[in-house]
TrEMBL record:
It catalyses: L-tryptophan + O2 = N-formyl-L-kynurenine. InterPro entries: Trp/Indoleamine_2_3_dOase-like (IPR037217), Trp_2-3-dOase_bac (IPR017485), Trp_2_3_dOase (IPR004981). Its EC number is 1.13.11.11. Gene3D superfamilies: 1.20.58.480. The gene is kynA. Homotetramer. Keywords: Dioxygenase, Heme, Iron, Metal-binding, Oxidoreductase, Tryptophan catabolism. Binds 1 heme group per subunit. One of its GO terms (biological process) is L-tryptophan catabolic process to acetyl-CoA. This is Tryptophan 2,3-dioxygenase. GO terms for molecular function: heme binding; L-tryptophan 2,3-dioxygenase activity; metal ion binding. Substrate binds at residues 56-60, 118, 122, 259. Its cofactor is heme. Heme-dependent dioxygenase that catalyzes the oxidative cleavage of the L-tryptophan (L-Trp) pyrrole ring and converts L-tryptophan to N-formyl-L-kynurenine. Catalyzes the oxidative cleavage of the indole moiety.
Length: 289
């Protein structure tokens, strides 16, 4: 067919006349995204520069970008729950779930780094470790896995410390959901509503009958029922991310200690024992059938 009919000739696509090509005084794609800054942020320090250090940097930088969006969405979800506006809060949670899947799949890219390759530049990291990610810690705190002792890791960075402390002192997403349920007439125990939100969430047996009643009649408790399932999805996804992290670390460094001083894989393995919403798992045992 002729090029004027298909726009393609000799395997070359014709640029349409309406396409903007002059950006001397217009906003461009690169300008909007500040790509000059973004793409200059990868600065390998191995000398001579190791080929695979760029992979290692980009893996962690992109993770931090996604974590920034996760925090943004979770903060809005909490705000909407405080306003009893559940539907858009669930939309935020749905977006977080998709981000979690992306983050979990991303481990497969880092897993292409072999132990021999990593060993050739690992030393330049010094004590730098993902354990020091303040955004990751803020996400954990926002979901309820709080630990005030973690604040000491960020004492040298006032801005990071403020973000983590704010997440520590604020009600978690689960706290906000339980408060919403209480305002909607569900029998949430007073000690749950008045708990010290700076402490890690621990299992509250008295909540299980509340959730059992919700699960017993989903049709009349649909909003609460749907939210419970969305929260379970969040925890499942988070645990899958933790597991893939553990297996990637085992694959690349085996049982070596972490650069940040942790025991490495054994330390990550213990994280799999941490929970966000234990009552939402316990209620499954109580459902007849």
């Amino acid at each position: 067919m002729a090029a004027d009919e298909t726009g393609v000739e000799a395997n070359t696509r014709r640029i349409e006349a309406s396409v903007v090509t002059d950006f001397s005084d217009r906003m461009s794609y690169g300008g909007y995204l500040d790509l000059d800054t973004l793409l200059a942020a990868q600065r390998p320090i191995s000398r001579p520069e190791h080929h695979d250090e760029l992979l290692f940097i980009i893996q962690h930088q992109t993770t931090e970008l996604w974590l920034k969006l996760v925090l943004h969405e979770l903060a809005t979800a909490c705000e909407l729950m405080r306003a009893d506006d559940l539907a858009p809060a669930l939309k935020c949670i749905a977006r977080v779930k998709h981000i979690q899947k992306t983050l979990t799949e991303q481990w497969s890219v880092l897993a292409t780094l072999t132990p021999s390759e990593y060993a050739q530049f690992r030393g330049v990291l010094g004590n730098a470790s993902g354990f020091q990610s303040y955004q990751y810690r803020a996400v954990e705190f926002t979901l309820g896995n709080k630990n005030a002792k973690m604040l000491q890791v960020f004492e040298a960075d006032a801005a990071a410390s403020a973000i983590v402390r704010r997440a520590l002192e604020a009600p978690s997403l689960y706290d906000e959901f339980l408060r919403l349920l209480a305002r909607a007439g569900y029998d949430i125990p007073a000690e749950v509503l008045e708990r010290d939100v700076t402490k890690a969430w621990t299992f509250h047996e008295d909540l299980v009958p509340v959730f059992a009643a919700i699960y017993a009649d989903p049709e009349h408790n649909w909003a609460a029922y749907e939210t419970c399932e969305e929260l379970v999805d969040l925890e499942d996804n988070f645990q899958l991310w933790r597991f893939r992290h553990l297996k990637t670390v085992e694959r690349i460094i085996g049982s070596k200690t972490g650069t940040g001083g942790s025991s490495g894989a054994p330390f990550l393995k213990r994280a799999l024992e941490l929970t966000f919403f234990p009552e939402l798992y316990a209620v499954r045992t109580e459902i007849p059938g």
